[in-house]
Amino acid sequence: MKLSTGIITAVLLIVGSSGAVYAFGKHNHWGMSPEEKVEFVTDRVTSKLDLDSQQQENFSKLAKTVAQLMLDAKASREQQVNEIGALLQDPSFNQARALELVQQKTQMINENAPLVVNSLAVFLDSLNVEQKQQLQDFIKNHRRHHRHGGGDQS
């Protein structure tokens, strides 16, 4: 696999995992704790990819890492939304403060990216060729089904 293809696959998997954890986090009416949501996602991935116990543990660690990062981001979200609202109400847009808010988010992503990439690498390296192909097919199909306009726009 070319390095660029590997990087794109890794990014898509991170986004997909994050999206799955986010989606389950968004549906609070399920009454699930974050731990239960991680277990649910892990069980689903385990059954779809037919993971062995070590692979399941690797994915569980990845899902827990992503879930914790999302909880951390959610904790500061309300304050950031309030600050953005205040910036929009000011007669003159405070570019320096807006840039500072963006840099804070970027810093959080940069600080946590190695944790996610490491967890992702451990999980991906534990997969066999067939499982990796299933994952690539899923990512390809998932991307196609979630485009606006409903059609394949490749």
Descriptive account of the structure:
Helix 1 (3-26) crosses helix 2 (34-49), helix 1 packs across helix 3 and helix 3 (53-89) packs antiparallel against helix 4. The protein has one domain. The chain has 154 residues and is an all-alpha fold. It is elongated, with a radius of gyration of 18 Å. The longest helix is centred in the middle third of the chain and has 37 residues, at 53-89. The protein has helices spanning 3-26, 34-49, 53-89, 95-126, 129-145. 13% of the residues are buried. The chain is built from five helices and no strands.
Quick overview:
The protein is mainly alpha-helical and 154 residues long.
Overall structural domain count: 1
Q: Fraction of residues in helices?
A: over 70%
Helix and strand run? HHHHH
Radius of gyration from the alpha-carbon trace, in angstroms: 18 Å
Terminal Cα separation, in Å? 21 Å
Sum up the overall morphology in one term.
elongated
In total, the number of strands is 0
Rounded average pLDDT: 78
- β-strand percent reads under 5%
Largest sheet descriptor = none
Structural class given helices, strands, pairing? Answer: mainly alpha
Compute the number of helices. Answer: 5
Identify low-pLDDT runs. 150-154
SSE layout and pairings?
Layout: H1 3-26, H2 34-49, H3 53-89, H4 95-126, H5 129-145
Helix pairs in contact: 1-2, 1-3, 2-3, 3-4
Keywords:
154 residues, mainly alpha, 5 helices, disordered C terminus
